[in-house]
């Protein structure tokens, strides 16, 4: 099994005819993803490597039964693209776009909530997710790990890749890059809950970063609801106060949102926290070998 994305997922790509959309569509197809359609307004009737292109998500869903969308759309058009995906009834929208205004994200997130949460949003500003050996929705490299028993949820794209590589001999059930913007559609807690309920996942790696209180809230959730071992890493131990570091949500003000505060919250509920990504991988390796 896997969470959110499996070999049965029928994927469409919004923005498939753009440079990035075309390039990453080919990478996803090479990884075994079942891409059934593309959507670019005004370009319906065309195809990309034999994949039919439609003018709207609704047309694509009616014709192909797509249930997942990957959004390769520029920031100013991204809100409209996600709202369209929600209206089309797609069950998962993977929003890769960086630089979407926070108020746009808040609007499409609230819209998805208001329609009964029928569309799960991952991102924005994220690398997507991969269930190795099954499906890949986004830009995560497909050849750095194999199918296995670790679940990974991460705010950072590059740290997602590093963790996948360092633990490639164990493999992963699903790796989810949730993005680092102040508002994201799927949280650490959402993924922790899904991994807890997934019989294939035996242990969980959670990668956070400075800023906000998502990791503290995840720690409280772990204490109450997660029985599987969790290993964590918090990026930003050396970050200067008051500066945004990489992600829009990664900013520390005073004592709020520091890496140390997050580490302490996680360790207080039994999560082993590494000071570096490699140390975190070593802790997970020890955890799995001891089971």
Automatic annotation (TrEMBL):
GO molecular function: ligase activity
Residues reported to bind CoA: 17-20, 43, 96-98
PROSITE patterns: SUCCINYL_COA_LIG_1, SUCCINYL_COA_LIG_2
Reaction(s) catalysed by this chain's protein: succinate + ATP + CoA = succinyl-CoA + ADP + phosphate; GTP + succinate + CoA = succinyl-CoA + GDP + phosphate
Residue ranges constituting the CoA-binding domain according to the UniProt record: 4-100
Chain sites annotated for binding substrate: 161
InterPro entries registered for this protein in UniProt: Cit_synth/succinyl-CoA_lig_AS, Citrt_syn/SCS-alpha_CS, CoA-bd, CoA_lig_alpha, NAD(P)-bd_dom_sf, SUCC_ACL_C, Succinyl-CoA_synth-like
Pfam family name, one: Ligase_CoA
Active site per UniProt: 247 (tele-phosphohistidine intermediate)
Protein's UniProt keywords contain Nucleotide-binding: yes
Keyword line: Ligase, Nucleotide-binding, Tricarboxylic acid cycle
SMART domains with a match to the protein in the record: CoA_binding
Family statement drawn from the similarity comment of this UniProt entry: Belongs to the succinate/malate CoA ligase alpha subunit family.
Subunit text: Heterotetramer of two alpha and two beta subunits.
Protein name, as recorded: Succinate--CoA ligase [ADP-forming] subunit alpha
Source organism: Plantactinospora mayteni
């Amino acid at each position: 099994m896997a969470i959110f994305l499996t070999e049965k997922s029928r994927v469409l790509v919004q923005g498939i005819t753009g440079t990035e959309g075309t390039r990453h569509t080919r990478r996803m197809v090479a990884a075994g993803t079942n891409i059934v359609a593309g959507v670019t307004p005004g370009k319906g009737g065309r195809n990309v490597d034999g994949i039919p292109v439609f003018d709207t998500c609704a047309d694509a869903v009616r014709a192909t039964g797509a249930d997942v969308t990957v959004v390769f759309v520029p920031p100013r058009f991204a809100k409209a693209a996600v709202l369209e995906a929600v209206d089309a009834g797609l069950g998962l929208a993977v929003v890769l776009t960086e630089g979407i205004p926070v108020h746009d994200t808040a609007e499409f997130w609230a819209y998805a909530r208001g329609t009964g949460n029928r569309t799960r949003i991952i991102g924005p500003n994220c690398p997507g997710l991969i269930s190795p050996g099954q499906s890949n929705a986004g830009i995560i490299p497909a050849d750095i790990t194999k199918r296995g028993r670790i679940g990974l949820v991460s705010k950072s794209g590059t740290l997602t890749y590093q963790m996948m590589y360092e633990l490639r001999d164990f493999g992963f059930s699903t790796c989810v890059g949730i993005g680092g913007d102040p508002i994201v559609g799927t949280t650490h807690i959402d993924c922790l809950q899904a991994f807890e309920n997934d019989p294939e996942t035996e242990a969980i790696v959670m990668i956070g970063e400075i800023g906000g209180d998502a990791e503290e809230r995840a720690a409280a959730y772990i204490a109450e609801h997660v029985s599987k071992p969790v290993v964590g890493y918090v990026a930003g131990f050396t970050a200067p106060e008051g500066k945004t570091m990489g992600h829009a949500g990664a900013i520390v003000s005073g004592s709020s949102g520091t890496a140390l505060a997050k580490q302490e919250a996680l360790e207080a509920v039994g999560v082993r926290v590494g000071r570096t990504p490699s140390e975190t991988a070593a802790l997970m390796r020890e955890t799995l070998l001891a089971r």
